[in-house]
Amino acid sequence: MRKFIIFILAILLILPYQNASAKMPTVDVEIKGEKNSLTIANIEVDKRVVVTHTPAFIYNDRTFVPIRLVAENLGKEVSWIEKTNTAVIKTDTGEVEFSIDKDICIKNGKEIKLDEDSIPMLAVYDGEGKTVLPLRALAEILGYEVGWQYEGRKVSIGLGKTDLIDDSNKITDIKIENGSTKLEQIVINASEKLDYELFKDIDHNEVAIRIKNAKIAINSEIGKIDLDSELLNHIEYAQDNEDVKILISLKRDIVVKDILSNKDKQLRICFTNKVTSISPIMYKEKQAILVSGVKSSEYNIIKLSNPLRYVIDIKDASFYKDSDLDKLYFSIGFIKSIRASQFVPDKNYSKNDQIVRIVLDAKDNAKDTSIKVEKEGDDLVIIPSGNTDVLSDSNLNEDLGYSVLIPHENDTLDEEEHIMKPAIFREPKYAKSPQEIIIMIDAGHGGKDPGAIAKNGLKEKDFNIDVALRVEEKLKADNFTVLMMRRDDTSVDIYKRPEIANEKLADIFVSIHANSALSTKAHGIEVLYAPKTSSNLKYEEQKPLASAINEAVKRTTGMHSRGVIKKPNLIVLKNTQMVAALIECGFMSNPNDLETLMQESYKEQCAEGIYQGIRQYVLERYGF
After folding, report:
1. What is the rounded CA–CA span in Å between residue 516 and residue 584?
2. Contacts (Cβ under 8 Å, ≥6 apart) of 369
3. What is the 8-class DSSP label of residue 582?
4. Of 37, 176, 265, 311, which has the maximum CB count within 10 A?
5. What whole-number distance in Å separates Cα of residue 66 and Cα of residue 133?
6. In 3D, which of 549, 568, 558, 551 has the Cα closest to residue 524?
7. Helix axes 543-557, 600-622, angle to 10 degrees
8. Neighbouring C-alpha atoms within 13 Å toward the C-beta of 104
9. Using an 8 Å Cβ cutoff, are 539 and 502 in contact?
């Protein structure tokens, strides 16, 4: 299911990052004239606990240690040059010099450049000044290894494998920022240019980032940042051999933009709502313009003259592929045409804002004009007033001919194919035989979208279609009417899948997938559903189907079940009118589950369970 499976993290334990520090002891330290109460980090040197009245502390996500304290506990002689504020450490192979507020250290006569967050500084404990440095930087230069135990904030330093300086990129910070709006942006800072890959898992509203040849230099090598925001659930990060892996969990589907800055040493992840169409409508008996898909976006309205035009800047919004729209030559009131584009922020906005600019060009003889903007669900409605031309209701209803559509990611623009057709009103169905029940089986992913890829090369799309075809065979043998979303390795757009099921008037929709996670410990099946109350398209309760499938697959496979899970924002679940469920047949990120998923016997058992679950639901719902 999740595309970031190709770089699964070997995380044994992920603990909350933010809340733990409040429970830890602190020390008062003055740094650069400011007094701070900082979390104490416990230190072990060669497996010996170091006890001191000038302890290590955590500052700006770094574990800072007094240079003399660590060096002397390692058996090194330390001297101090007052004139240059320099600490000199004698090693077995020479000397290392660190100077306060200097970004250069000298090792055996050779200059070594320190990154911005590793510069020695003066820390004052109860009037006593100490030269401190991030422990990881000190250890690497001296040729030692550093270990980190998240629980208890304990760091250890011991003999390393090499005396060479680590030349890998350092991930020095992961933080949350805002542009001009409340929609957050994630900022990742590094010591060198970033070489990375980013994947968006639409099905689970997650973003996975792999940063190559990099090391985490924050506080611990694994961590989780829990967030309380409209958009973000949490951020997880971990070290995996030579790479850093970051997972961003979102609360809803949204466009993801990755932007490099600061000489490619900073990666900014922005999130924008998807503008899917601009079209004329009748709204509260007035001619208006509908801008679809802006969700929670904020906007500004600007009136310009010579020539007269109105500008609506929709913030936190974007078009697919960043493509501008051509002029829309339809007449509404005083408006003769409309232009829309992805706007590059000027001085009136934050440089990191994502803005869709809509320009309404007025007719030459326009007088006494104004516009009003109203929020309607996930859309904006622009209502012009002034001298107007007549636009009849019949013109507006001609096949939505005025709509301008923006293609989905990775798709080419095909207006006929991508028009979001209105849902057909559905009544609960009363069937008397299996032939009257239309079941849509959706094998997840396919074609150019492989889904998850396991370490052994197994592609999720192949597992999904194998199980789906087996389910089809079983249902047809029971005389059900079965439709397949795909029968081979072809691509079907994620937004088209529910639309196809709706058009075919399917009664039951089941999507088949395999799962993945950051932690290799996650295992078992789970069945997802979108509650009836989460979508105005649904005409009956959704959970009974998911529960029936979960119980049946658990019985036929013997696999551990993670339960029936409410997922109101998954596209194939919320946009289908009929009862719908999505089954995750096991975790490709878990070694044991992966071995099971590859077995022909398990595929057959899983298909049998899905069939039995559907059969049980039909029995309870229709009585046969």
Report:
1. 9
2. 308, 310, 334, 362, 384, 385, 386, 387
3. E
4. 265
5. 7
6. 558
7. 140
8. 6
9. no
Q: How far is the C-alpha of 179 from the C-alpha of 16, rounded, in Å?
A: 26
Give residue 262's pLDDT. Answer: 87
Dump pLDDT digits (tens) for 408-460.
Answer: 333 332 333 333 334 444 556 778 899 999 999 999 999 888 888 888 889 99
- CA–CA dist 595, 455 (Å, integer): 11
Whether residue 176 contacts residue 227, with contact meaning beta carbons closer than 8 Å, is answered with yes
pLDDT digits (tens, 9 = 90+) for 552-600: 999 999 999 999 999 887 889 988 989 999 999 999 989 999 999 999 9
What phi, psi does 549 have (nearest 5°)? -65, -40
Whether the link from the prior residue into 16 is cis, omega within 30° of 0, is no
> Distance of alpha carbon 425 from its chain centroid, rounded?
34
Quick check: 308 and 362 in contact, CB under 8 A?
A: yes
Helices (H) then strands (E): counts for the chain:
10, 41
Q: What percent of the chain shows pLDDT beyond 90?
A: 30
Residues 516 and 460: their CA atoms lie apart, in Å, by 10
Alpha helix (H) ranges present in 91-229? 135-142
Q: Return the HEC string of 318-382.
A: ECHHHCCEEEECCCECCEEEEEEEEECCCCCCCCCCCEEEEEEEECCCCCCCEEEEEEECCEEEE
The SS3 assignment for 546 reads helix
Whole-number Cα distances in Å, 516 to 166, 201, 232, 455: 32, 11, 20, 11
CA 342/CA 354 separation, integer angstroms:
8
Q: Provide the 10 A C-beta neighbour count for residue 233.
A: 15
Contact between 186 and 235 (Cβ < 8 Å): yes
**Whole-number Cα distances in Å, 564 to 310, 321, 367, 518, 532:** 50, 36, 59, 20, 15
User: In the structure encoding, which two tokens stand for residue 118, read together?
Assistant: 């590793």
Sorted by sequence, the CB contacts under 8 Å of residue 230 that are 6+ apart come out as 182, 183, 251, 296
Using an 8 Å Cβ cutoff, are 43 and 155 in contact?
A: yes
Nearby residues of 457 by Cβ (< 8 Å), 6 or more positions away: none
Strand partners, 31: 34, 123
Residues 430, 431, 437, 438, Cα dihedral to 10°: -50
Q: 3-state class of 200 per DSSP?
A: strand
Q: Is the C-alpha dihedral spanning 620, 571, 510, 234 positive or negative?
A: negative
Per-residue pLDDT tens digits for 143-166: 777 665 544 456 667 654 333 345
CA distance 369 to 587: 59
Max CA pair span of the chain: 95
Give the full edge-to-edge strand order of the sheet including 438-443: 481-484, 438-443, 508-515, 579-587, 525-529, 561-566
Q: Which of 28-37, 235-244, 259-268, 304-313 has the lowest mean pLDDT?
A: 235-244
Structure tokens at 449: 């979208």
Q: What is the pLDDT of residues 19-57, one digit of tens each?
A: 333 346 888 999 988 898 888 877 777 667 777 788 888
User: How far apart are the C-alpha atoms of 553 and 525, rounded to whole Å?
Assistant: 8
Whole-number Cα distances in Å, 530 to 282, 376, 448, 527: 31, 22, 27, 11
Would you state the structure tokens that stand for residue 173, as one six-digit string? 């910070």
